Amino acid sequence: MTRKRLAPLEEARTGLRRTQILDAATRVFAEKGYHRATMKDVARTADIAEGTIYRYFASKTELLISMLRHLDDQTTQAGDLAAGLALSPRDLLRNRLESDLARLGPRFDLMVAVLPEVLADPSMRSRYYERIMLPSIDGIAGHLAARKEAGESGVRDVAMAARIFVASMLGLEIMSVLGDKTVRAAWKDPAGLAESMAQVLFDGLQARRRT
Questions:
Q1: Which pTM was predicted?
Q2: Up-side HSE of residue 23: CA atoms within 13 Å toward CB?
């Protein structure tokens, strides 16, 4: 009986400790960059012993991937897609983009610090794709499939449509890291940027004919 009562409490403590470490890593990596940052720096920022980190994360790479997953979980949520069936596809996309862009904005320094490392390391690229990109793609594809089955979407290739959506967000992040002034300026207005993306993805580039 005692063990069953303690299990949820222990699980909660583990979750809080992991979040504490991930938040500290976010600050350290954004400030120093991935290569210059050390586990000792993260431990000092989290106010814990360095050895404690390794009880939750096997390596610095594992910490980085978990940190990116932690940030991604705070933006795109599978539950949002299920609840969004009540909205039109365009409104759901625009609302979700606006929310994600607003949350990612304050973490711009972190994107600049770690995204190049992720793209440059083959092993890290693979893990980033499998743990972060693919779940997002699968969630969007499932939502689009539900829309199509209900007759609310005419998209032909659901799998590719989901990847185009995810790629549009990733592309903006890469453009920001590269220093594109237009994207960086637009990111300060998440609602406007989300509407611009929705116009391209839903309305297309062809002018509407007047009737």
A1: 0.73
A2: 10
